[in-house]
Every structure is written in C-alpha cells, then in structure tokens.
Amino acid sequence: MVHLDRIYTRSGDDGSTGLGDGKRLPKHHPRVAAYGTTDELSSVIGVLLAQGIEEPWFGTLRGIQNDLFDVGADLCFPSEDPDALRVTAAYTEALEAQIDGLNDSLKPLKSFILPGGEPGAAWLHLARTVCRRAERLVSELNEMGREQAAGPVNPEVLVYLNRLSDLLFVLARAVNSNGEADVLWEPGARQG
Fold first, then answer.
1. Are strands 113-114 and 16-18 parallel, antiparallel or unpaired?
2. Arch. (CATH architecture) of 25-180
3. In sequence order, what DSSP letters do the residues of the chain get, joined into one string?
4. What's the whole-model pTM score?
C-alpha cells in the first residue's frame, strides 16, 4: 500500500532521485527516464480519458493506465525480490487478446497511416509514439548491463511495451470508425 504524507521531500534538489530499493540515481539516468516516460504515457492516456471516450475503450485504457503504474514500479524497484511487483507474461497476453479481437473488424491496411482522424484516434497515436519511446529507453537500459543499469531489467517490461504500442495503434484505428476515418500516407504526394 502506498502512503504519501508529504509531496515534497527536498531529497531530489541535488538532481538525484530515489529508487524503490533505496538507491539514488541522477534524474537523467536511463532507468529514471524509462519509468518517467511510462508515467508520461499514462498522462497522455489520461488526457484522452478526460476528453471523453466511449466504452469499451474507456475501461481498456483505464486498465492500461493501471498496468503502466505496474511497469513503472517494476522499473523503479530493480530487485530480484520474489515479492516485488513484476510485469509478467499475463500482461502481454491480455494485450494480445485485445489486439486480436479488434483487428478482425478493421479495414485491411494498404498504406501507412498518418496520425489523425478523430480526436481520440489522434491522442492514441500520440500515446503510441510515447510508448515506443519508453520501449526504446527500456531497450537501452537492458543493453547497459546490470551495474550501469542500477540493477536487473525485467525482460517482460520490454515485451509488454512493444505489444502495448501495437494495441494503441489498433485502438486508434478502431476509434477511427474501424479504419474508415484513417488518414493514409500518400508517398511522394508533393512530387506531383
């Protein structure tokens, strides 16, 4: 259970931040950037939810926000403690089931899609790109090695973020009238 008595502690005034295991890292460390970007992704989704989106998308996206806090906790607590909250394959399996269910009703793609269409779809495309950035940061962290990364990196986090970006893409298409309102890329359109 999380219990916050004070919002400011002044402990980060020196440019460092504390991890869940008590270690302190510079705020620019890739681990901090990775879990900070998952928080940013959750905020982008929160803006979409605040602007209004219908069910079943609202519930799906609220669940993703919750998952993203689990991802952040996993990254913030780099430990092999078996009692620590860890993202598992079940998180990704749930996303895959949603992707498979949605993709069947979508108009087949014959071109890349430009972010846009309905406002909700545009927000989902923004969320997708933030998710890809989080994925790149976790990948970088994973490649650093245990000591430079300030601890282990759960490989399921990378898999989850990869699949989440796919789900956000499919959701954007679903919100765009099942692909009917997608904005298609026209290669070389300015060339005449």
1. unpaired
2. Up-down Bundle (1.20)
3. ----S-S--STTTTSEEE-TTS-EEETTSHHHHHHHHHHHHHHHHHHHHHH---TTHHHHHHHHHHHHHHHHHHHHS----TTS----HHHHHHHHHHHHHHHTTSPPPSS-EES-SSHHHHHHHHHHHHHHHHHHHHHHHHHT-TTTTTS---HHHHHHHHHHHHHHHHHHHHHTGGGTT-EE--TTGGG-
4. 0.88
Question: How many angstroms separate the CA atoms of 17 and 10, rounded?
Answer: 10
| Extents of the domains making up the chain | 25-180
Q: Does pLDDT of 163 surpass 90?
A: yes
φ, ψ for residue 107, nearest 5 deg? -60, 130
Say what angle helices 89-103 and 155-175 make with each other, to 10 degrees: 20
The string of pLDDT tens digits covering residues 80-138 is 777 888 999 999 999 999 999 998 888 888 889 999 999 999 999 999 999 999 999 99
Residue 77 is predicted with a pLDDT of: 84
Residues 78 and 149 sit within 8 Å (Cβ to Cβ): yes
Mean pLDDT of 35-44: 96
Segment 47-52 long-range contacts (CB within 8 Å, at least 24 positions apart): 47/123, 48/120, 48/123, 48/124, 48/127, 51/119, 51/120, 51/123
